[in-house]
Amino acid sequence: MNIQAEQTNQLDQSIYNFIKQVMPMTLTNGNNALNQDNHRCDTMAYAKQILDQYFPLSNGSHQDVCSYVIYYKQLLAFFADGTQSGLAQPRQFVALTGHKCEPSSIVLKNNGFHVEVSLDRSGENGCHDLAGVDDVQVEAALMTIVSSNQAASQCSWTSLISGQAGKGNKQFTSKDGNEYDL
Q1: Nearest in space to 167 (alpha carbons), one of 181, 179, 150
Q2: For the whole model, what pTM was predicted?
Q3: What are the CA-CA distances from residue 46 to residues 20, 52, 115, 171, 178 (Å)?
Q4: How far is it, in rounded angstroms, from Cα 134 to Cα 120?
Q5: Pairing mode, if any, of strands 102-110 and 133-139?
Q6: DSSP string spanning 28-84?
Q7: Which of 30, 93, 104, 125 could bond 75 through an S-S bridge, CB–CB 3.0 to 4.6 Å?
Q8: With contact defined as beta carbons under 8 Å apart, do 38 and 46 qualify?
Q9: Which of the two residues, 171 and 40, has the higher pLDDT score?
């Protein structure tokens, strides 16, 4: 097996493993199988576990983060005790919306898939979360591997919190200051 084929196989396996983990919870949530209070706690914890697994911090957990800021093109997570941590792999942070000191969303990328973490302390979920995380959405282009009834060119996102899918392209600012369209 040549190196390129092996890398492609590893990428395909990584995406498959990610989908295999994400799909059961989003399908359960999309069917409103959980009551609202448990739904919020369970799905937020689940979404942060996904962040810890695929976008780990150098130190600590996304579960314990109080705020996220962008500092010199790096994502920093601040904790209640005043400590901070960057991503274990800093290149995974690719874009944001809002201001660097108080982003309204951050975009992370791992093996070709994107995850958007929406931050809104006054949002439906964000007002209950220590870091103000209101939603965590997965770029649903991944989901086309599982769901073939969606056109491959359509860009859609699936929420790890609500399980709902939304269509449409999104615009962000890359960490370099350029446009970052998905």
Answers
A1: 150
A2: 0.76
A3: 14, 10, 14, 26, 32
A4: 6
A5: unpaired
A6: HHHTT-S-HHHHHHHHHHHHHHHHHHHS-BSSS-GGGEEEEEEETTEEEEEETTS-E
A7: 93
A8: no
A9: 171
